[in-house]
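lol forgot to send this yesterday, sorry. struct tokens for the thing we talked abt
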């Protein structure tokens, strides 16, 4: 599934959220930033441009925003049936979030 976003549409993606399934994004055109939370709950910013791909595990808090070009075209890949539901923070009650946090503790 392809997504083309402009400056107005991107606002919904900048709200910090998580998904109950892994999210895989491939940047087809344009550029922007994915922000994810580290073990200490601080932001890590990753610049993404055409040809880049990212896999976000289920339960990780994240957000996306455009850069100064104000455009991105991305493909979202799914395992199974497409699920688009974002759960805005706080969403710690979900099993996917609890599993993700537990996996962080295992690597400490």
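and heres what i got for the seq, position by position
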């Amino acid at each position: 599934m392809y997504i083309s976003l402009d400056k107005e549409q991107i606002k919904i993606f900048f709200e910090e959220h998580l998904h109950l399934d892994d999210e895989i994004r491939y940047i087809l055109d344009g550029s922007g930033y994915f922000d994810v939370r580290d073990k200490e709950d601080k932001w890590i910013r990753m610049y993404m441009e055409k040809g880049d791909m990212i896999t976000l595990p289920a339960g990780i808090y994240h957000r996306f925003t455009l850069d100064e070009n104000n455009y991105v075209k991305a493909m979202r890949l799914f395992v199974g049936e497409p699920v688009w539901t974002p759960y805005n923070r706080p969403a710690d009650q979900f099993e996917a979030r609890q599993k993700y946090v537990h996996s962080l503790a295992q690597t400490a």
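Helices lie at 11-14, 95-106. anyway ping me if u want another try
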